[in-house]
Amino acid sequence: MRVGQWVLVTAPMDMRAMVRGSDLMLGIGSDSVISLQRLDGGRTISDGESGEMAMNAIEIVLDGGLLSVDVIARTAHRYTGDYFVETVSTPSGALVRLTPKMGSISSHLLAERFRNDALDERLRELVRAETGELHTALVRAALHQAAPPLTTADQKQ
Amino acid sequence: MKFAPRQAFAGDNGYRLLPLRFRRLPWDESRVLVTSMAGDWLIAQREEFERVVEGRLDRAEPLFAEMEARHLIAADPSHSTLAPLLSQYRTRKSYLEHGPALHIFVVSLRCHHTCAYCQVSRQPVGNTIFDMSEATAAHAVERLFEWPSPTLTVEFQGGEPLLHFARVRALVEAIEQRNRSEGRTLRFVIASTLHDLTDEQLAFMRDHQFELSTSLDGPEWLHNANRPRPERDSYQRTVEGIERGRKVLGEDAVSALTTLTRRSLEAPHEIIDEYRKLGFHSISLRPLSPYGFARKTEGRNGYPMADFLQFYEVALDHLLAVNRAGYFMEETYGRMLLSQLLTPFSHGYVDLRSPTGAGLGAVVYDYDGRVYPSDEARMLASMGDHAFALGRVDESVSAWLDSPAMQRVLAAGVAEALPTCADCAYVPLCGADPIDHYARQGDTIGHRPTSDFCRKQMGLFDLLLQRWEQGSATDQRILEDWALRATRRGIAREAEAA
Q: Which of B355, B378, B400 is the last residue of a domain?
């Protein structure tokens, strides 16, 4: 009963309290949320803020000139299985904070892995931009030709 | 339908990208697997691939011709056409053309086993209220022939369907009677422990060309531990049933599959060797699913997907060794994945379809007259969750397809449109399983970074591709043979249906 109360009532209230009016929340998949924290230009993250959020957290600075918000969010989503993820936009790009959900999760070369994945997401973004419309058109053409012909009964309806 | 003008196909180097996806190879991060929308693929250096995406690939480079041949780029449109790509895509998705071919009739939930991992919440042997009634069976036969598929596989399941064999017999006779005017190709399968199989039952099965599917979990100690009976003779009865079935129906008419508990994971070699000893050339290594009693006993029998993948790797290497030694034996799920990787053809396996096979490839007629889009959906129902009940057998098929349950399945049933799957290099070869995600994560769309379905699919695709790519010529030939056998079976069934 106490556990149910916590899951259904207390935890959601706590989570709601963590979100500030300036935060942009992205829901991804079924149960993952990435918080894109908007900071005013020039403000930096204070030591206290960083330390409060995460023991053993790893912070990764990303170049906003190279990587779009969409690329960073898609990359961060891949890490939501093993880590709590926070993405903070900064004047020069973004800062991603990854906190392991369990002590047994290896964070060896985590920043390097994240950066490689972000570069892959950037390539995917280029592919999507060039092929997105064509992809839709091709699927429509392929399956349209495969559709069974209308029967006389269908045509009457 | 209008495509872009010709000039759109001529980038700086005279080509444009076609829809594609890629993945760094886990065993060599300097290279990527690149797949087309129809599932054709190649492996390239990541740096080279980056040049392709950025339009810097030169026509004179060998990679140019390779990418063009696999429909990853399109060169001069006056000399190339997208028709082969469309044709290949249609071939991959051809399972959509005829609707469900697999029809599961649950004739009784009664069973004499007390398996801790039972996924269907079986009932005691004397509890006949869990048997399918005559009226329900008659409606189910009517509905069966409302589907358009030229091939109908009718699979009898339980509980233990032999405990209500009178209903099996009546259903077969009614279906065959009706088929005299329908002219479909029929195939009957019974999923049974094969215990207490009578000569009369076997004679009936022989006359109607039944196939038998049974459960064999490995050597005697393991099988009896996983599948207990009060008499502690489950293994002995199963093996006797297999032998009697083979004698009457033929060697190839009996197949077996293994459900893996935690203790099974310690015995990959022993399980495979047992199958070989009994003369099987095929084995199915299935991880536990989170349904029925399996969920209740998860703490005792369950394990993380990573442990299953580790087991599978050892089992695969042992199977390759068995094959190298001259005895053909395949693993059925690996065979299906390899056929996806190494051939361009479609298949009927409902778990590897996108759009999903639930309701589009299979239908389940439960003992109580309820209808479900998959076996997993009825397993959830047996746990009290009827979220995916399509309706009842006395309603029309079109009412089932319009049901909120089916709409819910369809809304999450296209893998290419799901978060993370949309970008996955394996998605043209993979499937969507909204009901499994609902069962494990409480949501039909699901969360891929924590999805066991995704872990299993990615882990097995990676492993099979790595073994094929890095294996000896002999190992490559063995894995290709598995893939081609899967294709030949599909073609043979299509030919039967034609």
A: B400
Confidence of residue B132 (pLDDT cuts 50, 70, 90): very high
Using CA atoms, how far apart are residues B451 and B456, in angstroms rounded to an integer?
9
B496 touching A (Cβ < 8 Å):
no
Terminal C-alpha separation, chain A: 55
| Cβ contact, residue pair B93, A146, below 8 Å | yes
State whether B86 and A138 contact (CB < 8 Å). yes
Q: List the one residue out of B34, B119, B23 whose CA is nearest residue B374.
A: B119
Cis omega before residue B355 (within 30°)? yes
Q: Domain check: are B178 and B133 in the same one? A: yes
pLDDT digits (tens, 9 = 90+) for B148-173: 999 999 999 988 999 999 999 999 99
Render pLDDT for B60-69 as a digit per residue (tens, 0 to 9). 999 999 999 9
Which residue among B27, B62, B92 closes a domain?
Answer: B92
Q: Mean per-residue pLDDT for B71-96?
A: 86
ipTM metric = 0.85
Number of domains in chain B: 2
CB contact under 8 A, B17 and A130: yes
If you average pLDDT over residues B65-92, what whole number do you get?
Answer: 88
Q: Which of A139-148, B138-147, B189-198, B279-288 has the lowest mean pLDDT?
A: A139-148
Across the interface, of B16, B22, B419, the residue whose CB is closest to A130 is B16
Q: What is the reported pLDDT for B230?
A: 80
Q: Which of residues 228-257 of B touch A (CB under 8 A)?
A: none
Is the distance from CB of B380 to CB of B387 less than 8 angstroms?
yes
What residue has token string 């047996």?
B382
CATH of the domain at B282: 3.20.20.70
Confidence at residue A30, expressed as pLDDT on a 0 to 100 scale: 38
Calculate the CA B426 to chain-centre distance. Answer: 16
| pLDDT tens figures, B296-307 | 666 666 789 999
Interface check A9 vs B, CB under 8 A: no
The pLDDT score that the predictor gives to residue B432 is 95
B191, part of any domain: yes
CB-CB under 8 Å, B4 with A142: no
pLDDT for residue A47 is more than 70 = no
Residues B164 and B36 in one domain: no
Interface contact A143-B90, CB threshold 8 A:
yes
Are B75 and B206 in the same domain? no
Q: Which domain holds residue B20?
A: 6-92
Measured between beta carbons, the chain A residues lying within 8 angstroms of B417 are none
B5 touches chain A (CB under 8 A): no
Chain A contacts of B452, Cβ < 8 Å? none
Residue B14 lies in a domain: yes
Of the candidates B452, B454, B442, the one whose C-alpha atom is nearest the C-alpha of residue B418 is B454
In-domain check, residue B371: yes
In sequence order, the 6+-apart residues with CB closer than 8 A to the CB of B82 are A138, B3, B18, B71, B74
The answer to whether the beta carbons of residues B395 and B406 sit under 8 Å apart is no
Same domain, B158 and B113: yes
Partner-chain residue, chosen from B19, B21, B449, that has the shortest CB–CB distance to A77? B449
Min distance B303 CA to chain A CA atoms (Å): 16
Q: Is B363 part of a structural domain of the chain?
A: yes
